[in-house]
Structure formats: C-alpha cells, structure tokens
C-alpha cells in the first residue's frame, strides 16, 4: 500500500492564531476498517471520515492490517466490523456485479499525479478498456512508466478500475492483486455482455 507523506489529501487540519504566533493543532485522524468476503477472496476496506481510502484483496489479515497502520502512522486505526456492515455489503456487490456503483465517496491518497491517474481510471466505463500507451498519451506523455507506477500504487480495487488497463495487443497485464483476479474481473464483464475480452494468442 502506498502513501506519500509529502502530499496527503482529505485530512482535516484545525488551527488557531494566538497573538503573533500561530498555533496549529492537528486532530488525530481516525481510519476505520473491516473485512469482507467475495468470490474473489477476502478483502479489507478502510475508510476515513471523507470516504474509502483502501479496498484491497488478501487473506493475510495481520500483514494487511499492519500495512494499513504503516500507511497511516499518525492515524487512529480502528476495526469496525459491525459499524461498516452496510459499506461491506455495497462493496461486495460492486465486486460481484460489474458496473454496479455503490455510491460511496472515495478519499484517494497519493501525489497529485497519482490521483490524476486514478481519477482518469474512474472515467473508464464498465465494458471498455485502454492500454498503458494510450493512457499515457491522454496525460500528455509518451512514456508509460509513470502511468504504470501510478496504477500499481492504486489501493482501491474495482472502484478505481485499474483492471481495465491492458496491454496494447489486448492481452492481460499484471495486477496488484494478482493476474487471476484481473482476468476474472474482465471475464465477468464479458459474461454479462458488457465487454468483449480479447482471447490469448494461443487460442
């Protein structure tokens, strides 16, 4: 999970000015998290008071929870399984049903460049794909390496649909949460008649 301490977004700061000296008091942020289950495996969902900061697949709970704490070292990380049950239900449906919008705000955290890439990913409708070169061109560069790195740092699966970025020849490229999950997400869109998946060249 990626976090750039140099640029954070969605964190509230409160300050007061006393005389000629400015005293800034930073409220400790609370990040709530809970675990959900889906046909693609277990997932961790984490939310700030502004929206979802993470939706990550994985089954090693201690490792993933420690990574969450490392990503937000100054935040109060609180497990809220019962309180987030409705959120989990919506996220599970979004995973299982391509194109379903759970209507949940996102609190994307990263550099301004990364957030720009992630917002562009959200503009790709279910049923459409793009490739890294085309995506880079939309950002005004011919070098897809920065785009690839930003996509790899996305910590909100499905809702920021980085699985819809594929290779120029139509084949499936790597995925932060595993090739098999990416293939299945695209295949679901195909089965629902949303997306026509390009078959591997050997078929």
Largest sheet: 4 strands, mixed
Count of alpha/pi helices: 6
The chain-level structural class is: alpha/beta
Helix content: 25-40%
Question: How would you portray this structure in words?
Answer:
A four-stranded mixed beta sheet has the order 5-4-3-6, with helices on both faces. It has a two-stranded antiparallel ribbon with strand order 1-2. A two-stranded parallel sheet has the order 7-8. Helix content is 31%, strand content 18%. The protein has helices at residues 61-71, 85-96, 112-122, 132-138, 145-152, 179-191, and strands spanning 14-18, 21-25, 30-36, 43-47, 52-57, 76-79, 130-131, 165-166. Strand 4 (43-47) and strand 5 form a beta hairpin. The longest helix is centred in the last third of the chain and has 13 residues, at 179-191. The chain has six helices and eight strands, in the order E-E-E-E-E-H-E-H-H-E-H-H-E-H. The protein has 203 residues and is of the alpha/beta class.
List keywords for this structure.
single chain, 203 residues, alpha/beta, four-stranded mixed β-sheet, two-stranded antiparallel ribbon, 6 helices, 8 strands, 31% helix, disordered N terminus, disordered C terminus
